[in-house]
Structures are given as structure tokens and as C-alpha cells.
Automatic annotation (TrEMBL):
Protein name as it appears in the record: SGNH hydrolase-type esterase domain-containing protein
Organism lineage string: Bacteria, Candidatus Ryaniibacteriota
Organism of origin: Candidatus Ryanbacteria bacterium RIFCSPHIGHO2_01_FULL_48_27
MF terms in GO: phosphatidylcholine lysophospholipase activity
SGNH hydrolase-type esterase domain ranges (all copies): 45-194
InterPro entries: Ester_Hydrolysis_Enzymes (IPR051532), SGNH_hydro (IPR013830), SGNH_hydro_sf (IPR036514)
């Protein structure tokens, strides 16, 4: 549970969240579920190069931003290049063995880039979520757009969120991807982009922590 001083959208992220959140949510599907944890100790972000912080200067990856803003330690379990399949292979070592309270799951970007079959991607995500739930952890699922011209993943995320009742942050790079002011390269945000990423995750993660 967050302490009294942390029961807010923190500091420098507040301005970004207030300015951007309303318009962003008008166009995107946002989960109404709050996936409260039932035990555990650690907050973990489990993902790929976005979680690892490729493109950010030291201390400006979104996990570090969230940790400072919420005033709580958060474990960064990101690994560049991970697909949902390779992440599933390290789930026990990097997440389940660490007594998770809440796990932010940020995966599927590399599946999309490598054109993995959609059913395999979402089967893996469902398995990851199920195994975290089995040990009492809450889940915040971070959505990735499944294509530039059309979003192959949107309906699958809807079904997955409905079935598993996880908390959900949709299309995390919406409005960031393709904006040279916010991108380090063609895939990864820069420091300014990661501030927006953190501002989108923070209120959802905060609600889960408050529901403990």
C-alpha cells in the first residue's frame, strides 16, 4: 500500500498525466478492472527493451521514473529482444521467484515486429498472467499496438483483459511512436518519451497498489 505522501500522481509526471490523459483516453480502450494483489512483497516490471530502457539516459527509463514518482522500489526485469515466448521462459526466475505483489507486464512489441502468430502471442500473455495470478500477484498489462497501419492486437487485448480482469494500459506508445521529439530511434522513446510512458502507467499502477 502507498503511504499517505504517495497517494497521488507524483511530481513531474502529474503535469504530463493531466495534460495528456483526457484526450488519450477518449480514443483508446481503457480497462475498468483493478487487479488487486493478494500477497507478495515486490513490485516488478517484466518486459522487453522498453522496460530495460533502451534510448533513455541513466535513471530516465520509465521504471526508474515510476519508482521515484511513487516513492517505492520497483524491480526492473526488462530484457532487450524478448518476445512473449522468451519472456515466458524466464518468468519463474525473474518474476515468480521474487515474491511479486504487482507485476507490470510490457511485452509483445517484438512479437509484432517479427510477425509472430497472434494466437501464440496472446496465448503466452494469458499464461504469464495466469501464473502471476496463481501466486497472488496483481497484474498491470501494458498494451502494444500490433501494426502501424492497422492494430492487429486491439481486439485480442479486449478479450484478454475481459477474461483475466487485469488492469490495462492501452497502446503505450500511442502519440509517441513516429514523433522525432519523443523518439530515440525508430522503436524506442527518448527521455521525453519515457516520461509520457511512465505517466500513462502510473495512475493504473497506483490504483492497483491502493486496492491492496
Amino acid at each position: 500500500m502507498l503511504g499517505p505522501g504517495n497517494r497521488r500522481v507524483g511530481g513531474f509526471l502529474l503535469a504530463v498525466a493531466v495534460v495528456g490523459a483526457s484526450l488519450w483516453r477518449l480514443f483508446l480502450y481503457v480497462s475498468s478492472f483493478v487487479d488487486a494483489p493478494h500477497g507478495g512483497t515486490n513490485i516488478i516490471v517484466f518486459g522487453d527493451s522498453l522496460t530495460e530502457g533502451i534510448g533513455a539516459s541513466p535513471g530516465h527509463d520509465f521504471v526508474s521514473l515510476l519508482s521515484r514518482s511513487l516513492g517505492i522500489p520497483i524491480i526492473n526485469a526488462g530484457r532487450s529482444g524478448d518476445t512473449t515466448a522468451s519472456a515466458l521462459g524466464r518468468l519463474e526466475r525473474d518474476v515468480l521467484s521474487r515474491d511479486p505483489k504487482v507485476v507490470v507486464v510490457e511485452l509483445a512489441g517484438n512479437d509484432s515486429l517479427q510477425r509472430y502468430p497472434i494466437d501464440e502471442t496472446f496465448k503466452n500473455l494469458r499464461t504469464i498472467i495466469g501464473r502471476i495470478h496463481a501466486v497472488g500477484g496483481g497484474v498491470v498489462l501494458v498494451g502494444i499496438r500490433g501494426g502501424l497501419l492497422s492494430d492487429r492486437y486491439k481486439s485480442e487485448y479486449r478479450k484478454l483483459v475481459r477474461d483475466t480482469k487485469v488492469s490495462f494500459v492501452p497502446d503505450i506508445l500511442g502519440g509517441i511512436l513516429g514523433d522525432p521529439k519523443l523518439m530515440y530511434d525508430g522503436i524506442h522513446p527518448n527521455d521525453a518519451g519515457y516520461v509520457i510512458v511512465a505517466s500513462r502507467i502510473e495512475p493504473v499502477l497506483g490504483a492497483v497498489l491502493e486496492a491492496e
